Amino acid sequence: MARLKVGLIFGGKSGEHEVSLTSAFYIYNALDKKKYDVKLIGIDKKGVWHTGSVKELWINPGQTEITRLNVKTREITAVNKNGKVYLVDLNNGKIITNIDIFFPITHGTFGEDGCLQGFLELLGSAYVGPGVLGSAVGMDKDVMKKLFRDAGLSIGKFYTLRTGEKNNLAPIIRDLKFPIFVKPANLGSSVGVSKAKNRNELMKAIKVAFQYDTKVVLEENLKGREIECSVLGNEKPIASMPGEIKLQSDFYSYDAKYISPDAATPVPRADLKPEIAKKVRETAIKVFKVLNCEGMGRVDFFLTPKKLYVNEINTLPGFTSVSMYPKMFAESGIPYPKLLDKLIQLGMGRKKRSDKLKRDFIA
What we know:
The chain has three domains: about 120 residues, Rossmann fold, CATH 3.40.50.20; about 60 residues, ATP-grasp fold, A domain (Dna Ligase, domain 1, 2-Layer Sandwich); about 130 residues, ATP-grasp fold, B domain (D-amino Acid Aminotransferase, Chain A, domain 1). It is about 30% helix and about 30% strand. The chain contains eleven helices and 20 strands. The model has no long low-confidence stretch (mean pLDDT about 95).
């Protein structure tokens, strides 16, 4: 039986570019090469697609702080020809290979926010992870939180600032109270995130966040345990056992996630009462459905003594050696390679479902 040709897409025009390189490196090594013929597709910071071998594409693989994409590699694009999807060499126009399914692990803007997913839809290709809508609303913290609120989910107080608007911060400060978290609305991995403890720090934090996005979200500081839960599936998603992030740092920053091993301790199975663990899992699935997600997602919570608050979802969560999404499912009985198998099967299944829909209409 022929191996399935998987186009593993990573990198991209995002502040999470390096994290994506690391996630893809671990995914590549975990994919069963007897089942899959893996084609590597690295997107550089200008948006150019590259392909090559492991040794050609990755510089310092697996080390987020120093890893790089080699941009002196073959430049490519993807096209649909006669109903099949192919990778094409941009220099000579020759077809390199066909692709059965794409596996994007492009964290952040232009890769996790529906942009890449829209292109893959136009190609008519199968792909792993949520579709255009789920990806878009799952990335935008402003829209996401409004959908949570409308669905009756418990969330912390928040305000949204936009480029070009005049904002009166005084009532926001009175309502949220310091410390206040400041985040770019459309980014992940804690890139551009600050915890402001006074007005001067707040102004600096807003300036930093606006470097990454045209919308900035200000959130109240919820004092509670940081609980996470992984979700897997399409129409009938399942949730993993909840995990917990135990912090030794001020908050779960980019450095704490990927650089400094002592800043945070990821615990794949949180010490929770059974009824609390059940509520976390049920709420994670509800979040997944509210945002119209498919494939995968990691839902983050704050657990206070009185309430479980939903923080956000990550629709293309990390797959590095310290990432919680695969660790929580491994703890729940689905090891890393089997998890990748299931994600690919879900992507193929969604494509078959989509292909059955009518695309034309004659009255």
